Amino acid sequence: MHTLDELQSLYATYLNENSYKKEPISLYEPVNYILSLGGKRLRPLFSLMAFELYDNKIDKALCIAHAVEVFHNFTLVHDDIMDQAEMRRGKLTVHSKYGVNTGILSGDVMLILAYESLLRFKVPSSIPSLVHIFNQFAREVCEGQEMDMLFESSSEVTLAAYEKMISLKTAVLIAGALKMGAIAAGATESDALKLYDFGLNIGVAFQIQDDYLDTFGSQAQVGKQIGGDIVQNKKTFLILKALELGNQHQKQDLLNLFKTENVLLPQEKVKKVTAILTELNIPDEAKRRKQYYFEKGMKSLEEVQVMTEKKELLRKVAFQLLEREN
Amino acid sequence: MHTLDELQSLYATYLNENSYKKEPISLYEPVNYILSLGGKRLRPLFSLMAFELYDNKIDKALCIAHAVEVFHNFTLVHDDIMDQAEMRRGKLTVHSKYGVNTGILSGDVMLILAYESLLRFKVPSSIPSLVHIFNQFAREVCEGQEMDMLFESSSEVTLAAYEKMISLKTAVLIAGALKMGAIAAGATESDALKLYDFGLNIGVAFQIQDDYLDTFGSQAQVGKQIGGDIVQNKKTFLILKALELGNQHQKQDLLNLFKTENVLLPQEKVKKVTAILTELNIPDEAKRRKQYYFEKGMKSLEEVQVMTEKKELLRKVAFQLLEREN
Question: A143 CB near a chain B CB, below 8 Å?
Fold first, then answer.
């Protein structure tokens, strides 16, 4: 079994050795650019960790991990175009650097490159299952992104719909990464489903925590200005829960604060919204909901039919992801 | 063996029965919209025709044909965004009708749906090969589109590079559709390659003919205004050949006519460019080059180890495609 650092380093080496040197350069350079921006690159590691529960020849699984990372970065490239985002991880987004058309096309080729990477897996009989799992989460991530865009202009988003959206947009990729790793290593269908479930639930828990930290975290913790979601009028878990729990008066205040005609300074708006959220105990609600998903996920992990010690790394990573503020 | 009309009707029924009824509707409605715009839908038929050379259970191959058609329409959706095209087949393009963001995202999901369709093929052991063939032409189509965009702003496009570009942007899809059909039906690797080669060559021949007809065809034949490529300053086979063959004077005239600062009326520009092309015998050059690729393709088809009668339909379709003006 490898440590998280070792897996991270294994994948970083693989990524480095597999940069795209094809023609036309102008199509592939943006691919290498976005992949080099880094971040924690946790998603591919989920495939590796799941694989290692059943098979210690971890090198075999690197192409699957890579498919996950390339797919994830494809979504970043296209989402940044849709969101008109100029910066990512302190660098120019692909379309800001290379133009929108190249952003679209290099994104497209990345989706294909992800499938290509998956096809490098050395056991042909496993490939249909792997591609099947990949297809499903890939399609669901698109569905989640569409829901997210729809919610922006909708005034009737329910909490249930919101949790569905974050599950599709974020959590299914972690879940699918785990499931692919498990299936590739020969896990039973039942174990693969438990690992999927583990990933899905900690993914949703993570997103709820993300919503919480954006308003109630510290700048050091979050790495960006606190209150960004509020300034951007995002309907996060916090806001939707407040709209569910608030009285007529509090709801109206929130809705007024979220109206785009609002002329308050950003800090003032953040302060007023935060006050209402605190009044309604939304931080506790968020923690409780996060904990609900976290425990559901951990229970699924427990049920995976593998010696407890082997599952230690996955457990540790889940705790690291989700206990940042404790 | 089925006739072309029968295959067309089989696929049309399949397409109709497999419209996408998933949520969110706003993501899938554009998919059904573009797929319903029709056109001749020849590309999927190449998979069916190749399949039927070796296996008469044609229903099995419909999911492969569908993958080809969905992929092709994905490229149309994204290309129309890149080209800022408002109309296609007399109807609004997807992004004109539904917005650019939905165009990007529905296009993305179509690429995934194409893989999903491929995965429906009932013989799991063939799936790795099918996905492999699909990956290759899909990536190459993106490369061709990138080259096409690069050529727009480049003043040094060679004929060889142009033929490479049309081969990637157009011909590999026909070639790949044929190869997938053959492999799915259990053809030998050698036959599959011959069919690929047949498709590649008639694809390039078809594109050269397309360039020719855009300037020298009749409006009735082409279904659009003659000279569109010249008005849009497109560096087609005709222009690149003229730049290769022309004397200093003719070349300069052409380049001047193509300068965007040019203030001639469109009809006048078309007339002057056409005159130079005729002077240089470019129509004959185009026909000769088309014929070269056509014959190369037909030779590959001849070498396919299947009874001649069975290949009659593919031969007929190639002639229909390429002998429109004779």
Answer: yes
pLDDT in single tens digits along all 326 residues of chain B: 899 999 999 999 999 999 999 999 999 999 999 999 978 899 999 999 999 999 999 999 999 999 999 999 999 999 999 999 999 988 999 999 999 999 999 999 999 999 999 999 999 999 999 999 999 999 999 999 999 999 988 888 999 999 999 999 999 999 999 999 999 999 999 999 999 999 999 999 999 999 999 999 988 777 778 899 999 889 999 999 999 999 999 999 999 998 866 678 889 999 999 999 999 999 999 999 999 999 999 999 999 999 999 999 999 999 999 875 43
User: A250 and A242 in contact (C-beta within 8 Å)?
Assistant: yes
Q: Which two tokens stand for residue B158?
A: 């060679």
Residue in B101, B111, B127 closest to A128 by CB: B127
> How far is residue B112's CA from residue B308's CA, in Å, rounded to a whole number?
37
Chain B residue with Cα closest to A122: B128
B104/A82 touch (CB, cutoff 8 Å), yes or no: yes
For the full predicted model, state whether its pTM sits above 0.90: yes
Q: For residue B124, is the peptide bond before it cis, meaning its omega torsion is within 30 degrees of 0?
A: no
Tokens 């009735």 sit on residue: B220
Integer Cα distance of A218 and A325 in angstroms:
9
